[in-house]
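Methods — Computational structure assignment.
A single polypeptide chain was analysed. Its primary sequence is given first, followed by the predicted tertiary structure written as structure tokens.
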Amino acid sequence: MEKAKLASLVLSAVLIVGCGGNSENSLAQSDQFAPKSRDTLVRGNGSEPESLDPAHVQTNVAAGILYDLSEGLMTEDQSNNPVAGVAKSWKESEDGLIYTFSLRDDAKWSNGEPVTAYDFEYSLKRAVDPKTASEMAYKLTPIQNAQAIMDGKRPVSSLGVKVINSHELQITLDYPVYYFLSIVADPVSYPVYKKGVEQYGQGFFHAGRLISNGPYMLKDWVPNGYVLVTKNPYYWDTKNVRIQNVKFVPIVERTSALNNFASGQLDYVMYIPTINLDMLKKQYGNQLKQTPWLTLEYLDFNMTKPVFKDNPKLREALSLAIDREELVRNVVRDGSSAAYSLFPPDIDCARYKDVKYSWSNEPADKRLELARKLYAEAGYSKENPLKISIDYNTDEQHKKDMEAIAQMWAQNLGVKVTLANSEFKVFLKVRQSHNYDGVARDGWVADFNTIDNFATMWTCDNPQNNSGYCNTEYDKLIAEGQKQLTADAAVPYYSRALLLMQNDYPSIPLYAQNVTHLVKPYVMNYQMEINHLDHVYDKWFSLNYGDQK
């Protein structure tokens, strides 16, 4: 899932759950409890959501809202494990190819109509339909014929999704996928209300029209103002949804978000400034929530441009000329770690932590020496400098990162760099259409704790392949890895593929992060230390009112 960076603090070593103390600040008694009049959790959400259509949601900003509005066959617990959602039970065939889901009798849409197996059949077929042009439908490729349908080679009707009856759904796969239950917990698998989509198209996914099936329903959406959701009385587990309303406020300026939190206008801050983190830790104590995050910040070369497409030495030189250690230590300053692979080292229980560049252990001066040699061999020099642009989405930390990288390239190689920023939704379109001149900032947070969630982004036709890289040998190795029955059996295929792709230098890894939020002490049951995907469902929480009069 696309992201904008989160700030975080240096953590002691923490193992990802399933793969192997904060200081207290002094709070006034009144700050420990929510005001009695408060019936709304207010979240600083970083930026404006690009869409609320499950087929078109591709950022963690929008997904955080969808976790409240919708629910798939499966949902998640706070450790990111798939658990029963609309499906109350399920069976898997011995060969791992057929899943049969039994839906709850009391699952309903926010208008009171029942959610049925037909709704999931419609929604999954809609997601893979080329006419929908879903940016995230590639996650559904394990379903029988899904890839052929997205390629226009098979009709949508051939998708391996079968309605047995209104409350039983059977999904057949082309190959076994050990994390398939997590796929049907992902937003791209969420059901959409057929009659509404057919009547209004994209206009359906707005306040006043949207009918959803999650613990909350959309009450209001003021563009660049806020998104307000309110408790859905028809949700099957509504008795355990304790917060009446959730308000998502898109505050791009991190300092403003921090000030709003300090003044009590926000209960939760998604992005915090990376300055004076020790001071913030001292001031806010355990309100500063943090944990390791399965994420990566990186740059994409525009491989559709001849300057990069035909010059691998230039791409490698530019990667080598970035001092990642200096970047994280002096610019990012949030506890992030330098990255030498195009995936976070802890992904998939750290099975791929040794898949990295051969020069990653070389000292900085040796890397720079090699960078200058390759830059010259690529045909450039201080007399004939490369001239490129770095595109990024508007954000104070992204700006600092890009300025630092531009300075490194200028000082180390003599590259002439210009910077271009744009609002997030505009930037997404520019980057995905390969409509940037040189290099573009990118970032990804895992949707599932599996290497495939990162590796597939560099396959030829993946809509998240923002560099435009294409290597058919890489695609073949990824396809073989996907067909393996276990995570361990897939390692040889993915390892070979990742080394092949990384040594082609379509992108430049920068750093892997921890995740940090600010959360008021009266927001109860927030177990962030076990949530390494940072999927946040407000149905988990409650507000502590204490014994106020």
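Note: The longest strand covers residues 216-222.
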